[in-house]
Amino acid sequence: MKRINLLTLLLGVFVFTSFSQERDSRGYIVKVGDVAPDFEMKLTNGSTIKLSDYRGKVVMLQFTASWCGVCRKEMPHIENDIWKAHKDKDFALFGIDRDEPLEKANKLIKATGITYPIGLDDGANIFAKYANRKSGVTRNVIIDRDGRIIFLTRLFNPEEFEAMKKAIENELDKK
């Protein structure tokens, strides 16, 4: 049992370093270890959140848009494998709809069947705190309890997605 856990950990570290450190080639302007840039965001339910208010929790930011086919493919996996598994823990997940009106974000929610909160990113100003404005969506940012970025993804790659899940689980297990 211990050997399997060690192998899983080593595989996770390998995948983590293979994928999450390539910030320039993937359009990120932040890197693992950085304090996550703070922002305020209006959710589709009308409430407003501020990222820094979630210190003490593990946070996942999922940058998305209704026109993004890869996002639509990834969102049900995020819903079922991450949100449903961790929503009752010290975990917060926010989809961030890039530069679209409320109506489009609501259509995306309905089309994908997700239940996690989605916020509106008018002008892609939140996105621009994390990645080059001209870069694409379908990217996830995992933030630890201290507000530091611990994992970055781009596009939907099953191996990277599994490594991201492990990073979230490992961080949640630390408390």
Secondary structure: helix percent: 40-55%
| H/I helix tally | 6
Rounded radius of gyration (Å):
15 Å
Total strand segments = 7
Largest sheet: number of strands, sense, barrel closure: 7 strands, mixed
Q: List the secondary-structure elements in sequence, H or E.
A: HHEEEHEHEHEEH
Q: Please, what is the average pLDDT?
A: 90
Inertia-based shape: globular
Strand order of the largest sheet: 2-1-5-4-3-6-7
- How would you classify the helix and strand content by structural class? alpha/beta
Percent of sequence in beta strands: 15-25%
* Low-confidence runs of at least 5 consecutive residues: 13-23
> What is the distance, rounded to the nearest whole angstrom, between the alpha carbons of the first and last residues?
22 Å
Characterize the structure shown:
The protein starts with a helix and ends with a helix. Helix content is 41%, strand content 20%. The protein is α/β, with parallel strands linked by helices. Helix 1 packs across helix 6. The longest helix has 19 residues, at 2-20. Helix 3 (69-86) links the parallel strand 3 and strand 4. The protein has a 7-stranded mixed sheet with strand order 2-1-5-4-3-6-7.
